[in-house]
Write a structure and sequence with these properties.
Elements lengths: L3 E11 L4 H9 L16 E4 L6 E10 L4 H20 L3 E10 L7 H9 L1
Antiparallel strand pairs: 1-3, 1-4, 2-3
Length: 117
């Protein structure tokens, strides 16, 4: 069986942040800039508090069957909840969106390479 790669985005909104928490997040904003966003096994957090209180965690996971994407999404949501709780950040509207890269349409270059082979 082949390994499938899943990209999971867990989105939410910071809620009830204290002035100290807000300042802490602003101080670390550069390392969480959306332009540096990446899908990683441990999850990468991005946000822009100057625009709005929304955040996104990007996770990379894998499985062997199409159904494994559900478990991967649950793990990603739990990891996001754990990180937020560990840092004491309130949140709301947590939701996830997952993509199985084996099912993603090929880009123009990938189609050309596949047809050449």
């Amino acid at each position: 069986m082949t390994t499938r790669t899943f990209r999971i985005m867990v989105r939410g909104v910071f809620d009830g942040l204290s002035a100290e928490q807000h300042a802490e997040l602003l101080a670390r904003a550069a390392e969480h800039d959306v332009l540096r966003a990446a899908f990683t096994p441990e999850g990468h957090l991005s946000y822009d508090l100057t625009a709005r209180a929304a955040f996104t965690f990007r996770f990379l996971d894998s499985g062997e069957a199409e159904e494994d994407i559900l478990a991967a999404s649950e793990r990603a949501e739990q990891a996001a909840r754990d990180w937020l709780a560990e840092h004491g950040y309130g949140y709301r509207n947590l939701r996830s969106q997952a993509e199985d890269l084996s099912q993603a349409p090929l880009g123009k270059r990938q189609r050309r390479a596949a047809n050449a082979g």
